[in-house]
């Protein structure tokens, strides 16, 4: 995967989670992923389809981290924690994808909109759209880690 | 001055975002807030009651925010309702498309309470002018 693809996802992740999630995510060293098991317990995944590149993006949260984010986002308005976590991860995935796509557009890569899917449970599978290598960026927060995965194949 | 009695319809397929927007609106003093989870449900609600503002996501199943905007602007009874698009779609092309379709204002997610408050002030100020 072209490394210029990963920075927009890192930037959008920090922007979304610091602006609306009330956390201060610190990116760690990226690495290539082996296998398809999730690093976190709740994952949002969204397809990225465009003329110049295609693939998918996922964000996988540890339990402690996503509980804190949902609590920060909704305050006292939490109704059903499990359902609220799933819904919030969907919206977070959507926002990060939108922010990254806007930055990628400035680099000459245009992607269509898509609706995110959510998977939860320990050790679940994350199936990316292409079989291209997956870059993982771990993030630390005070309430636990989360992981951004990007898998994009350049068609140029 | 914002009209705190304005009846506002918040449209988003994600409950999280509807609740965040509703929470901010309540904090700002707005009292009459309804919710819909897609454009089609929103259109039905708009036909049944009188709304003074629509706050709507773009990317939704069933009927997108852009399609709802076009339907509202094409409807004689609804076409003057201010329409605030609140969306993760930050691409310039999308913003231009929304402007051409008659959007009143546009917020790119993520956003803060201050940003939403300012956009509402701008909308109600332009309505009063």
Q: Got a strand count of chain B? A: 5
Number of beta-strand segments of chain A: 7
Number of domains of chain B: 1
Specify the CATH homologous superfamily of chain A.
CheC-like
The assigned CATH architecture of chain B is 3-Layer(aba) Sandwich
Radius of gyration of chain A (Å): 15 Å
Any idea what the CATH superfamily of chain B is called? Response regulator
- Helix vs. strand class of chain A: alpha+beta
Helix content of chain A: 25-40%
- The unreliable regions of chain A are none
Number of helices of chain A: 3
CATH architecture classification of chain A: 3-Layer(aba) Sandwich
List the helices and strands and how they pair.
The complex is a heterodimer of chains A (156) and B (129).
Chain A: H1 6-19, E1 26-27, E2 31-32, E3 42-49, E4 53-61, H2 63-74, H3 81-106, E5 117-120, E6 135-140, E7 146-154
Helix pairs in contact in A: 1-3, 2-3
Chain B: E1 7-11, H1 15-28, E2 32-36, H2 39-48, E3 53-56, H3 65-73, E4 83-87, H4 92-100, E5 105-108, H5 113-128
Parallel strand pairs in B: 1-2, 1-3, 3-4, 4-5
Give a brief description:
The complex is a heterodimer of chains A (156) and B (129). Chain A has helices spanning 6-19, 63-74, 81-106, and strands spanning 26-27, 31-32, 42-49, 53-61, 117-120, 135-140, 146-154.
Structural commentary:
The complex is a heterodimer of chains A (156) and B (129). With 156 residues, chain A is of the alpha+beta class. Chain A is 33% helix and 26% strand. In chain A, strands 1, 2, 3, 4, 5, 6 and 7 form a seven-stranded antiparallel β-sheet that branches. In chain A, strand 3 and strand 4 form a beta hairpin. In chain A, helix 1 crosses helix 3 and helix 2 packs across helix 3. The longest helix of chain A is centred in the middle third of the chain and has 26 residues. Chain B has 129 residues and is of the alpha/beta class. Chain B has one domain: 3-Layer(aba) Sandwich (Rossmann fold), CATH 3.40.50. In chain B, helix 3 links the parallel strand 3 and strand 4. At the A-B interface, helix 1, helix 2 and helix 3 of A face helix 1 of B.
């Amino acid at each position: 995967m072209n490394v210029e693809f990963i920075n927009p996802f890192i930037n959008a992740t920090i922007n979304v989670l610091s602006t609306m999630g009330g956390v201060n995510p610190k990116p760690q060293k990226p690495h290539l992923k082996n296998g398809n098991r999730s690093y976190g317990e709740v994952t949002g995944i969204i397809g990225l389809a465009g003329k110049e590149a295609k693939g998918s993006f996922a964000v996988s949260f540890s339990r402690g981290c996503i509980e804190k984010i949902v609590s920060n986002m909704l305050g006292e308005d939490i109704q059903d924690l499990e359902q609220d976590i799933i819904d919030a991860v969907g919206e977070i995935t959507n926002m990060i994808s939108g922010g990254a796509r806007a930055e990628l557009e400035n680099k000459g890569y245009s992607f269509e909109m898509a609706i995110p899917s959510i998977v939860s449970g320990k050790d679940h599978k994350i199936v990316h759209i292409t079989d291209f290598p997956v870059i993982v960026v771990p993030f630390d927060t005070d309430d636990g880690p989360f992981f951004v995965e990007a898998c994009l194949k350049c068609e140029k | 001055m914002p009209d705190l009695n304005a009846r506002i319809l918040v449209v988003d397929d994600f409950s999280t975002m509807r609740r965040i927007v509703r929470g901010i609106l309540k904090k700002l003093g707005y009292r009459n807030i309804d919710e819909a989870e897609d454009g089609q449900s929103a259109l039905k609600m708009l036909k049944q009651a009188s709304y003074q503002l629509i706050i709507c996501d773009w990317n939704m199943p069933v009927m997108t925010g852009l399609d709802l905007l076009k339907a509202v602007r094409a409807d004689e009874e609804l076409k003057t309702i201010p329409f605030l698009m609140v969306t993760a779609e930050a691409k310039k092309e999308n913003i231009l498309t929304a402007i051409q379709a008659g959007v009143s204002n546009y917020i790119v997610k993520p956003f803060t309470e201050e940003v939403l408050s300012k956009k509402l002030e701008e909308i109600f100020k332009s309505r009063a002018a």
